Amino acid sequence: MSEWEELLDNPEYEPVRKGLQAGVALLEKYYRRADDTDVYFIAHVLDPTLKLEYLNAAWDEEYLNVGLAAFKSRFTIYRAKYEVSRKKPSTTTSPSTSIPASMKSGALSSDASTDNMDPFEEFHRYLRQPRLKRENFPNPIPWWGHQFEYPVLRLMARDYLAIPATTCIAERSFSLSARTDDPRRRQMKKLKFGGLQKLRAGYTDGRLSAEGEVMKKYIGDFDFDNEDYLD
């Protein structure tokens, strides 16, 4: 944003000055929103390809310390919830809180004495591990699904990484719905309307393919991932 602010003082960009001012104002708006919530910071740290790398480089120490304090505060809350869930006898297993028996002792008991001295040992241990490569782990959510050695952070990742970074997808869906809900289709029932919207989103996002659907109908063993069928 500082580069945009410098352009405002450059006479060469006087013809587009109003546009630059609007852009800077919008950036400041979202910067302020990031200050008002801990979600941005926590989601950043819980990405194993980022952790604190970008935050250390881009954030002032004052804001970094505030973010870390907020993270540890939330970690303490999740740690308490996890400890309660471990003590409760249950005949059912929850995918978010259960740990395979073969890994349970190694994941928690080995660090019990250390946790008594440092309640954030799990967090510090996670930060000490090398960052993963983005090309190998483009989506951090599946990775967290198998990280039983970080049980508290795993619970946090389940909640925080599920939060959409922007509302663009939802807003785009609402915009598309206006095209479906026109005066010529006012007798359409809710079920059909919702089905059409889901189909439209699927084809737009590439999750559905008309060619693939046809092949699936007429070739029983058709495999969407097998490119030989499309030659």
Highlighted features:
mainly alpha, 61% helix, 0% strand, extended
List the helices and strands and how they pair.
Elements: H1 2-8, H2 17-35, H3 39-45, H4 53-58, H5 61-87, H6 101-108, H7 112-117, H8 121-128, H9 140-144, H10 151-160, H11 168-180, H12 190-205, H13 210-218
Protein name: HAT C-terminal dimerisation domain-containing protein
Region (Disordered): 88-115
Main location: nucleus
The helix content is 55-70%
Given as residue ranges, the uncertain stretches (5+ residues, pLDDT < 50) are: 93-99, 101-114
Largest sheet: none
- Counting DSSP H or I runs of 4 or more residues, the number of helices is 13
Class computed from helices, strands and strand pairing? mainly alpha
Overall 3D form: extended
Pfam families: Dimer_Tnp_hAT
Keywords: Metal-binding, Nucleus, Zinc, Zinc-finger
Region (Disordered): 88-115
Organism: Amanita muscaria (strain Koide BX008)
Descriptive report:
This protein has 231 residues and is an all-alpha fold. Helices cover 61% and strands 0% of the residues. Helix 5 packs across helix 10.
Outline:
By secondary structure, the protein is an all-alpha fold.
